[in-house]
Amino acid sequence: MPIDRRSFRIGMLTSALVLLGVFIGVAFTIRADLVTPANSDTQATAAMQSPVSDGHAPNFPAVVKRVMPAVVNISTTRVVTGGSQISPLMQDPFFRHFFGDQFPQGQQKHRESALGSGVIVDSNGYIITNNHVVAKADEIKVLLGDGRKFKGKVVGTDPKTDIAVVKIKADNLPTVPWGDSDKIEVGGYVLAIGNPFGLNQTVTMGIISAKGRANVGIADYEDFIQTDAAINPGNSGGALVNARGQLIGINTAIFSRSGGYMGIGFAVPSDMARSVMDSLIKNGKVIRGWLGVSIQGVTPELAKQFGVPKAEGALVSEVMDGTPAAKAGVKSGDVIVKFDGKDIDNPTTLRNVVAATKVGKTVKIRVIRNHKTRTLNARIVEQPKNLAKGPQDESTGGGGEGTALAGVEIRSLTPQIANQLGIPSTTAGVVVTQVDVGTPAEEAGLHAGDVILEINQARVTSVEEFKRQARRLGKHGSAVLLINRRGSQLFLSISP
Asked: What average pLDDT does the segment 265-279 reach?
């Protein structure tokens, strides 16, 4: 079949145009491919320069690169006196039958070693760590991330917060910038950096699980950050940093049934750690503020009794004579709800805030007294070195059946019994000698040896007065007791 030349030329022209279009499209695609990675690299570089990218996704490699050089390994040794270090084989009776007693016995001196972590917070060689990492150490060695080794010297320690400061002779050191632990939020990303099990500069990631953890039993002053970032033995004293690479905590302890990581770790918040460190460097000790009150938590029952809207605040159970609280007019039964502008949710908050207050500062204290709000002014003084408590003792007697005080036995408080209990001989009240198991009083925490001073804010000076007040309660009335326990006063709420 003959070919139509005109149709052939048109077909060839059409094909050429199609191929030209494809070529142009490919060229633009290639050009776009060449341009896009360049923009991505620029964005990646910018992201690397900032630990938190524009999309708020943490850039952990950048954080680690910046923080890691300032986290150090701390190894300590001390000489202790203990039992004989002879091989157990040498102590076997059969073996000793042949060799006699020529091997050393009794107390022998030997070295104990321990490992921990620390954080360089000052380029001139100041390192913050835990007290338990360096406590009783005869020798401290600090290993930097670049391999340099230094001998460390303890500047000061504070067992009450488990914080210590170590100094090495060096300058121009890398540091971790301080963060504001007061502004952290539960759920935020954190990195824990330290030397678990001697594995230098290990990084683990997690979130802030909780904050303000207290009554954990680790230290006297507790306001821990809880995290699920893996913390193990050797992490103590290491850094807990946020997504911006700022130091928000000093890793301190773990909750564990096995001795290893179980998802719950605790860190001293940076605000507390920094305050303690500054005081140790400046004064050689930690100077804490003191108000001079004994306080306790506010239960729903106590809140109702004392006219507090919510079960929050710190209930004053005792005001010590001559203290800032006494001079300011604070009274037993006051509920402190605000101190120096800070809301007081519980006794731990008040205790920590007062301790951190500068000595000599006059602060405003908002209290609820008899359902009314008052504002008092107190001038804070330095906390005494020893706040001693007396011993506990017990005796026998009876009273209070058929009410909230059923099963509580009491007897008159004599000067002799008061002395045995470690309280002033002039104290007026009755002493609890027995609390039956399963009674409301026992469930509320009343103990033998407690001295009852008041029932529902009415003074109790004798057994007869105790019985009279107990009868007034009736079978459905609650009792709020003011008691003296081992020299300290506190309130107990007992519901039938």
From this structure: 95
Percentage helix, strand, coil for the chain under 3-state DSSP, each rounded to 5? 25, 35, 40
Least confident of 15-24, 168-177, 471-480, 482-491: 15-24
Catalytic residue among 75, 181, 236, 270: 236
Q: Are 389 and 422 in contact (CB under 8 A)?
A: yes
- The CA distance from 351 to 313, in Å, is 11
Q: What is the pLDDT of residue 82?
A: 58
Can 371 be counted among the known catalytic residues? no
Residues in CB range of 376: below 8 A, 6 or more apart: 328, 329, 330, 364, 365, 366, 367
Cα 144 to the chain's mean position, in Å? 27
Catalytic residue from among 75, 117, 158, 162:
162
Rounding to the nearest 10 degrees, give the CA dihedral for residues 212, 384, 162, 312: -10
53 is catalytic: no
The question of whether 162 is a catalytic residue gets the answer yes
Mean pLDDT for the chain?
Answer: 80
Residue 339's pLDDT band, with cuts at 50, 70 and 90, is very high
What angle is formed at CA 227 by the lines to CA 225 and CA 232, rounded to 5 degrees?
Answer: 110
Exposed, middle or buried by CB within 10 Å (0-12, 13-18, 19+), for 266? buried
> Is the whole-model pTM more than 0.85?
no
The residue from 117, 132, 181, 340 that is catalytic is 132
